[in-house]
Every structure is written in C-alpha cells, then in structure tokens.
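Per your request, structure below.
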C-alpha cells in the first residue's frame, strides 16, 4: 500500500514528546513490512523551526518525509503549502492517516479530505479526552467543535491506542466507527535480557517524563510525604522552569529535600538503564491516552504504578504488571505502600513482564494490524467497544 501520514510535527522535533516517537516508529515499521509511507509535516519545533529542506522530500529511515513551512509559530501550525500539497495529492494514496487534533493545520487537512471524498484514519493522540477538551481554551475548543469539528470528526475512522481514549472519544460521537491498536514502542534488548536489577539501599521510585502539571507529579510528591517507609524518588525529566520551581518549593514544604533527586532528562540506553535500576515506576497523570514510558519500564522488568487516567491502566491491571490508583492522596499513598511491601510480587513482575511485553508489542504484528485497518476503513462494521 501507498500510505500518507499527515502530522503537525515529526522527528527530530522531540520537543513535543511521545507522539513524535510513536508516529515515526509506526511509519518505519510499515515500511519494514513492505509498504510505502510518505509523511507531510511542518518544520514546527516548539517556538523554533527545524532546519530541513522544503523543496524536496527527505528519506528518513525508509520513510519519505516532506517538510512544509508553517506561517505561525504556535500550536495552530498553519501551513498553506501543506494544505496545497494535500489538496493536489490526497487521492493518490491508498490510505490517509492524520494525527492529532485541535490545531488549524489538521482540521484544515480533515476538511480537504472531506471535500475530496477521502475518509482518513484519525489518531487524536489524546487530544479528544475530557481533560484536554476542558483544561485550556475551553470556550474556543467548544466553539470549534460545534461549528466545524463535530462534522469533520464524523467523516473520519477513529483509531485509538487504549480503552481510556476510546471511551473518551465516544463521549463526543457515540456512533464513531473505529478500533484499538496499541502504539509501536521501540523496545530494548530484543535479542537479549535486560540488565540485572541491583537492589537499592532504599525503595527507589522513578518518574521519567515531561515535567508538566498534567503528569500529576505534585500528587505523587504529596502522597510520598505521608508514607512510613524509607524511599528515594528520582525524577528524570524537564519542563517549564516556573513549574519545576513550584515542584521544588513543594518538595521543601513537604520536608522531602533529602529524599528527592532531580537526575535530568534520560534518553536512549541511558533511559532504559534508569528504568531498570528503580524498584517502581510511578505515573500519577491526570490524563494519558497511552503512555509509552509504561511499556518501556515494563520492557526492562520494572513494575509500574499508574493512575486510572493513564491509557494503559487497564492493560497493567489485566496483565497483572503493577498497581492502579485513583488520584486521591490516600489511595495513592496506600498503593505505594502496597507496592513497597509486595517484594515477592515485584520479583514476579520483573521475571514475567519482559516476555509479555515482547509478545504483546511485537513490532511486525502491530504494523500488520495497522495495515489491515487501512485496508478495511470503508467496510469494517461499527464497534461500540474497542477491540
């Protein structure tokens, strides 16, 4: 198949976090099983622009990537050049997959697809959950949704990566046709065993992600302030300086200066070594449509504690690979204590998680599932619950 991806930003714009990695891994995996993938994207890189050629495609790990200049420097990502190219070529592809929502670029692309009679696959990438819908610019989003958004969304085939995201999306359109396929994750140690976990002097909890209010790190800190066992919290990540200072002040106010370590951003092998070394990975987010880092942690055998708002919380519970909590401080504290005391359970998870993740997140199998979805967009029966 000849497949077109349209996304506001693409690697190396890693400033946008997990979706950049997920979209690129999917495109590359489809190429590896014999499909042709073209990506239309912009030069967006936060407030800056990527220094990439604009007049010709760039081959990146087998994927044909066409960068277009955006005329805005914000999250609207307006790019008339990309819209023009989409209008001229969108019917040339066997499948069109658009990623994200709530920016003029993608909504414009969706309109073009509708006008051209093309039904694209839409991966909202967490943009249609209640937290995002109501957290910022609530009035603008509701206005956009009720004027044009609802109509455009109804002309798409929905792809989600978790049951949490599926249920959120059905609140906007209960008749949406679509299905669930997990993200493809870049797993380490595919041909060998992950590093042996070394025991820590104190129970060590790890956090690795963008430091943002959405991640609920303040909840984790407050919950840890009330536990009665020795621990160390290692925070690997970066974010807005003002918000990070707020968290540092919270740590001081809770008397945890000696128990919290800021270890800086981790990537590549360093990231997986960090995850393997901690006793428990914790993510008490207000919302995550998927959370790649949960799979990355489990891929090296480290148990996880996640909030019920994390897309993979159902997977963690069903596979018995960690603990799931609400965001109430008492319950977070109780689940942390339970994980601390359950030493044998943590040992079991370290043994069982690696082969489970390798099987469930087999790259070739997942890529084939995506290809099947593209082939059947126009004739799959509606499913009220994701599969």
């Amino acid at each position: 198949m000849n497949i077109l991806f349209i996304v506001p930003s693409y690697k190396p714009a890693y400033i946008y976090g997990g979706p950049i990695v997920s979209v690129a891994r999917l495109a590359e995996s489809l190429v590896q099983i014999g499909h042709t993938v073209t990506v239309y994207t912009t030069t967006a890189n936060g407030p800056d622009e990527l220094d990439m050629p604009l007049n010709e495609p760039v081959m990146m790990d087998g994927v044909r990537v066409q960068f277009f200049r955006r005329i805005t420097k914000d999250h609207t990502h307006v790019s008339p050049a990309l819209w023009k190219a989409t209008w001229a070529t969108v019917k040339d592809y066997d499948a069109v997959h658009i990623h994200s929502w709530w920016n003029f670029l993608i909504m414009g692309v969706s309109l073009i697809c509708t006008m051209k009679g093309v039904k694209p696959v839409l991966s909202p990438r967490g943009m249609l959950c209640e937290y995002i819908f109501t957290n910022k610019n609530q009035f603008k989003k509701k206005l956009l949704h009720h004027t044009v958004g609802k109509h455009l969304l109804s002309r798409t085939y929905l792809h989600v990566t978790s049951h949490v995201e599926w249920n959120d999306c059905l609140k906007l359109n209960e008749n949406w046709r679509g299905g669930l396929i997990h993200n493809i994750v870049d797993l380490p140690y595919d041909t060998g065993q992950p590093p042996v976990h070394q025991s820590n002097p104190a129970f060590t909890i790890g956090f690795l992600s963008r430091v943002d209010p959405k991640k609920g790190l303040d909840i984790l800190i407050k919950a840890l302030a009330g536990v009665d066992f020795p621990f160390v919290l290692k925070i690997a990540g970066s974010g807005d300086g003002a918000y990070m200072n707020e968290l540092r002040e919270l740590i001081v106010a809770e008397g945890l200066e000696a128990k919290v370590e800021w270890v800086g951003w981790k990537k590549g092998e360093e990231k997986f070594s960090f995850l393997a070394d901690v006793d428990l990975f914790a993510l008490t987010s207000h919302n995550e449509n998927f959370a790649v880092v949960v799979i990355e942690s489990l891929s090296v055998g480290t148990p996880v504690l996640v909030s019920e708002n994390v897309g993979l919380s159902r997977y963690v519970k069903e596979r018995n690979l960690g603990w799931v909590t609400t965001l109430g401080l008492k319950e977070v504290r109780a689940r942390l204590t339970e994980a601390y005391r359950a030493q044998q359970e943590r040992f079991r998870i370290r043994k069982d998680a690696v082969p489970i993740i390798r099987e469930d997140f087999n790259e070739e199998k997942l890529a084939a599932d995506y290809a099947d979805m593209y082939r059947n967009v126009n004739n799959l029966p509606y499913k009220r619950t994701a599969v």
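The domain at 203-360 is CATH 3.40.50.2000 (Rossmann fold).

Regards,
D.
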